[in-house]
């Protein structure tokens, strides 16, 4: 028998979650939502759930590292109050190209 791992959702899961969830939105009465949920909306919901789950008493800051370019991720982080604090050029190499990495931070 295969072993499965159950874990918390992360923002990069948003598109897959939308595909599953939207089937139920459009074809069942499991949810009372009537319009398909866009990936960016699901990303927002995941981040909102994360912030509710965090124990702000034990965390002072959250730092997010994002491969660049990624305007969608930049907008998402900034919408939640993150500030871009660093941009490192040509940090890694993948698919025959150099990749920059930028960092966003929020003080809780």
UniProtKB/TrEMBL annotation:
It comes from the Bacteria. Pfam families: Acetyltransf_4. Keywords: Acyltransferase, Transferase. InterPro entries: Acyl_CoA_acyltransferase. GO terms for molecular function: acyltransferase activity. This is L-amino acid N-acyltransferase YncA.
